[in-house]
């Protein structure tokens, strides 16, 4: 039998192979992302990276009707943050289709208009990627830019443990939330947890009150709670009229009103989303490009 030396296999080769195996087990830290590539990003895992978004899908802030208080509060908070002043995390909760996620994106655009030198970035993270949020914070902490971390449609099921990752980042842990990061989340629920999840914790825990408090305390870590409620008919029609004016679609007022009311009746609800869906249909029928 030939020896390893005779086969051309040296101790140096063995060390090289061991080093390669160790690198596969524990790869080097990913380089800091280039946040100058865009104004908005989406966070992805496996591998961790920020994907630039060249053009954000958003509605102009002035077209968001019926949410004036939430709009003004979130804009003021975002301007403070962009200027390097203290700002709160924000939870936008309430009725579906009333512009919660649209408001976050529209406010980001307005801040860039008002503070063009602020280097304010919007970073979207999916709910299922919340366990990686600490790694994302580590990347953002090393940047000189400022970041609105945006999690849309945030909620948790009865067996979901992702909320613990989010709770630790909001204001817990040794490092805490970086000064250059603020978190905006949207949800249909004010307390993020379904009622049956809270009741289950109350019935099965050794200390029911403490278990429920842990669930509810997640919402308490957001300094701003902005409520969104179903709109009335006047607000619904005002939204559509605003879209028509913005895109130059001319139509008789009585016809617009009649068709808009018929549309919402077939949907069984009124909201900003329903108003936009009607306007999209109307613009298509009238030959107006959006």
Give a short overview.
The chain is an alpha/beta fold.
Summarize the structure in words.
InterPro entries: DUF815, P-loop_NTPase. The chain is α/β, with parallel strands linked by helices and about 290 residues long. The mean pLDDT is about 85. A 7-stranded mixed sheet has the order 2-1-4-5-6-3-7. The protein folds into 2 domains: about 35-230, P-loop containing nucleotide triphosphate hydrolases (Rossmann fold, 3-Layer(aba) Sandwich); about 235-285. The chain is built from 10 helices and 7 strands.
- Helix content range: 40-55%
**Order of SSEs:** HEEHEHEHEHEHHEHHH
Number of helices: 10
**Gyration radius, to the nearest Å?**
25 Å
Give the class-level CATH name of the largest domain. Alpha Beta
Gross CATH architecture of the largest domain? 3-Layer(aba) Sandwich
Largest sheet: 7 strands, mixed
Q: Can you tell me the CATH superfamily of the largest domain?
A: P-loop containing nucleotide triphosphate hydrolases
The third-level CATH topology of the largest domain is: Rossmann fold
Taken together, the total number of domains comes to 2
Average pLDDT rating: 83
List the helices and strands and how they pair.
Blueprint: H1 11-25, E1 40-44, E2 49-52, H2 68-82, E3 90-94, H3 100-114, E4 120-124, H4 133-141, E5 146-151, H5 162-171, E6 181-187, H6 195-204, H7 208-220, E7 224-228, H8 233-246, H9 253-267, H10 272-286
Parallel strand pairs: 1-4, 3-6, 3-7, 4-5, 5-6
Antiparallel strand pairs: 1-2
Helix pairs in contact: 2-3, 6-7, 8-9, 8-10, 9-10
Pfam family, one: DUF815
InterPro entries: DUF815, P-loop_NTPase
């Amino acid at each position: 039998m030939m020896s390893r030396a005779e086969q051309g296999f040296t101790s140096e080769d063995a060390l090289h192979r061991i080093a390669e195996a160790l690198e596969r087990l524990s790869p080097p830290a990913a380089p800091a992302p280039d946040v100058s590539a865009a104004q908005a990003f989406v966070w992805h895992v496996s591998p961790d990276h920020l994907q630039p978004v060249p053009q954000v899908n958003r509605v102009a802030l002035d077209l968001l009707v019926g949410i004036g208080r939430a709009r003004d509060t979130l804009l003021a908070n975002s301007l403070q943050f962009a200027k390097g002043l203290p700002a709160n995390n924000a939870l936008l909760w309430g009725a579906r289709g009333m512009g919660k996620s649209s408001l976050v994106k529209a406010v980001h655009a307005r801040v860039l208009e008002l503070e063009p030198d602020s280097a304010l970035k919007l970073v979207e993270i999916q709910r299922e990627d919340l366990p990686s949020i600490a790694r994302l914070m580590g990347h953002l902490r090393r940047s000189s830019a400022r970041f609105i971390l945006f999690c849309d449609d945030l909620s948790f099921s009865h067996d979901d443990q992702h909320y613990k990752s989010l709770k630790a980042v909001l204001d817990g842990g040794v490092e805490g939330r970086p000064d250059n990061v603020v978190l905006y989340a949207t949800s249909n629920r004010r307390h993020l947890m379904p009622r049956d999840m809270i009741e289950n914790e109350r019935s099965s825990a050794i200390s029911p009150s403490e278990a429920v408090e842990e669930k509810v305390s997640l919402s308490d870590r957001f300094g701003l709670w902005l409520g969104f409620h179903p709109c009335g008919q006047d607000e619904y029609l005002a939204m559509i009229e605003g879209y028509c004016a913005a895109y130059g679609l001319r139509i008789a007022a009585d016809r617009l009103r009649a068709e808009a009311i018929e549309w919402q009746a077939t949907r069984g609800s009124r909201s900003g989303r329903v108003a936009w869906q009607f306007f999209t249909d109307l613009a298509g029928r009238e030959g107006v490009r959006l």
